[in-house]
Amino acid sequence: MKKFQFRLEAVERHRKLQEQEKQVSLAKSLGKMRATEAKLLDLDMKEVQARREFAGLGAPGRHDKVTPSDFWLLDQFIRGQKVRRVDLKGVLEINEQEVSNTYREYLHARQQKKIMEKLREKKMKDYKEEKRRSDVRAQDEQYVSRHRLRQGREDEGGENNEE
C-alpha cells in the first residue's frame, strides 16, 4: 500500500501562513493601542504636574514673584491637555476597535487551520484503518495460499500412494 499523503496539504500550509500573518497583525495593533495608552498616561502625568505647579504658584513660601501671565500659561496648558486627552481617547477607541477586528480575524484564521488539522487527522486515521485491513487481507490471502499449496501437495502425495 502506498504511503500516506494528505491531498489538501497546500491548503493546510496556506491556512497556517494566514494564521501567522493574522497573529503578527494582532500583535502590531496591540502594540499601537499600548503606545496610545502610554501617551495618554504620559499626558495625565504632565497635567498632574502642571496642576501641582498651579497650586504652588500662590504659596506664601515662594521666593520669586508670580505674575498673572504665569497663572494664565498654566491654565492654558491644562486646558490644552484636556483637549489632547479627548483626542487621544478617540484614537484609543479606534485602536481598541482595530484590535477587536484583528482578533476576530485571527480567531477565524485559527479556526480554519484547526479544521484542516482535524481533517488531516481524520484522513490519517482512515488511512491507518485501510492499511490495517489491507495487511489483514494480505495475511489471510497468504494463509489461504499456503493451505491450498499444502492441500495440493497432500493430494498429489495421496495419488502417488494409490498407484
Task: Write the topology of this structure.
Elements: H1 9-56, H2 68-162
Helix pairs in contact: 1-2
Question: How many helical stretches?
Answer: 2
What is the typical, i.e. mean, pLDDT? Answer: 87
Shape: rod-shaped
Order of helices and strands: HH
Q: How many strand elements?
A: 0
What proportion strand?
A: under 5%
Low-confidence stretches: none
* Structural class designation: mainly alpha
Q: Kindly provide the radius of gyration, computed on alpha-carbon positions and rounded to a whole number of angstroms.
A: 40 Å
In percent, how helical is the residue content? over 70%
How can the largest sheet be summarized? none
Q: N-to-C terminal Cα separation, in Å?
A: 47 Å
Detailed description of the structure:
By secondary structure, this protein is an all-alpha fold. It is built from two helices and no strands. The chain has helices at 9-56, 68-162. Helix 1 (9-56) runs antiparallel to helix 2 (68-162). The protein is rod-shaped. The two termini are 47 Å apart. The model has no long low-confidence stretch (mean pLDDT 87).
